[in-house]
Amino acid sequence: MSEVPAPVAPGALYGIGVGPGDPELLTLKAHRLLRSSDVVAHFAARGRPGNAWGVVAPHLRPGQREVRLEYPVTTEALPAGSSYEDLLVAFYDESAERVAALLDGGSDVALVCEGDPFFYGSYMYMHNRLAPKYTTEVVPAVPAMAAGAAILGAPLVCRDEVLCVLSGVLPEEELVARLEAAGAAVVMKLGRNLAKVRSAVERAGLLEYAHYVERATMDRQRVLPLAEVDPATAPYFSMVLIPSRTASQR
């Protein structure tokens, strides 16, 4: 009688933040888990190289399998009758099924994402779907706003100041109200929202203190006063920083 093969133990899922873009800002733990995993999965826009993949590719060992998870839509116009939220929910459902099949087969999977996994990171949506069923570990990373402050050479907050982190997709009136109440602020997710964000910053009386940082730590990094930026030129990977206005006085 032939022996029945022992069941394969599921693999582990590692949600790895790769930082703002400089491959040297990858943490030692992220590097170790990347190289030890059987599979490295990453998100990418349709027809474009994945940003996170570009960061980790130089660190990988030969023979590791790449799994590309391609968004159905990013910033382009949606097909008639479709919903951005519905498309992304279906995408994350399908992507989670692909990763689950690899985990069920016994492969450890490193799922990488730009910045930090739980700070506006796409990994969080996969975590919600897979963490209840599989062993998972999340590896934090250098967030883009920390890289932006380092590039500016300006402290974000000091002492009892309040840092407000905002999404550029918020309505202008809400941006104005929150900026007026903050001691310092970071506005993420610019792109097509930059004109609205700039207007909100100006209405809050903060334009002279605001800085624009594009592709922080990447090859095409750009830093300008917000007042000098053409709103039509802002990519998704850009932010507005309004750092501490009191740190230099202490």
Features:
Cobalt-precorrin-4 Transmethylase, domain 1, 7 helices, Methyltransferase, Cobalt-precorrin-4 Transmethylase, Domain 2, elongated, 250 residues, five-stranded parallel β-sheet, five-stranded mixed β-sheet, alpha/beta
Brief description of this entry?
The chain is an alpha/beta fold. The protein has seven helices and ten strands.
Describe the 3D structure.
A hairpin with a 7-residue loop joins strand 8 (211-214) and strand 9. The protein folds into two domains: 13-142, 3-Layer(aba) Sandwich (Cobalt-precorrin-4 Transmethylase, domain 1); 145-249, Methyltransferase, Cobalt-precorrin-4 Transmethylase, Domain 2 (2-Layer Sandwich), CATH 3.30.950.10. It has helices spanning 28-36, 51-56, 84-104, 123-130, 144-152, 172-181, 194-203; strands at residues 13-17, 39-44, 65-70, 109-113, 136-139, 163-167, 184-188, 211-214, 222-225, 238-242. 29% of the residues lie in helices and 20% in strands. It is α/β, with parallel strands linked by helices and 250 residues long. The chain starts with 12 loop residues before the first strand and ends in an 8-residue tail after the last strand. The chain is elongated, with a radius of gyration of 20 Å.
How many discrete domains?
Answer: 2
CATH fold-level topology of the largest domain: Cobalt-precorrin-4 Transmethylase, domain 1
In percent, how helical is the residue content?
25-40%
Q: How would the global form be characterised?
A: elongated
CATH superfamily of the largest domain: Tetrapyrrole methylase, N-terminal domain
Q: Give the strand content.
A: 15-25%
Please identify the top-level CATH class of the largest domain.
Alpha Beta
Report the structural category. Answer: alpha/beta
